[in-house]
Write a structure and sequence with these properties.
InterPro entries: DUF7781. The protein has about 160 residues and is mostly beta strands. Helix content is about 5%, strand content about 60%.
């Protein structure tokens, strides 16, 4: 609360913080199991930070010890092989991959550390919820909550 020296009333708690809940993505996933592989077609619609659509063809082994997945994005002409997410802690995962972009004729590798907290220098919580529509069809909703907490200042007399 702001106890200013100018005699103003303290600011209410509702004015000190803000939480903005934003639906950020909708995925429709169509899957079929073929000879030890799961073949999937993902239609991905993104709301934030900009409206975007992506289609992906995904292949991954059905074995529980699977260590990779293959992704082809026809719109971006991108092919990737990614490792499965490797848990480092309860909230931190590592994923590595190699890929080739046919538009730019570029091959490279990348790695990614992911967590549900933070991102892009903003205080943010991200989460996903999946819903099985029918056998072979899943719908995934992604949302994020951006938050600003009050600044606490003080002094010791």
């Amino acid at each position: 609360m702001d106890w200013g020296s100018n005699g103003e009333e303290p600011t209410s708690w509702e004015e000190l913080y803000s939480i903005n809940l934003i639906p950020s993505e909708l995925f429709l996933k169509f899957r079929k199991e073929v000879q030890g592989l799961r073949v999937g077609l993902n239609l991905e619609f993104y709301n934030a930070p900009c409206n975007e659509f992506q289609g992906k063809l995904v292949l991954k082994p059905l074995a529980p010890e699977r260590m990779w997945k293959f992704i082809y994005e026809p719109i971006h002409q991108d092919v990737r092989i990614l490792s499965k997410k490797i848990p480092l802690t309860g909230y931190l995962n590592l994923q590595v991959g190699v890929g080739h972009n046919f538009q730019m004729n570029a091959t490279g590798w990348k790695w990614k550390l992911t967590t549900c907290f933070g991102g892009d220098g903003i205080s943010r919580i991200r989460n996903k919820t999946s819903l099985g529509v029918c056998p072979g069809v899943d719908m995934r909703f992604g949302w994020r909550a951006d938050y600003v907490l009050p600044e606490v200042t003080g002094q010791v007399p």
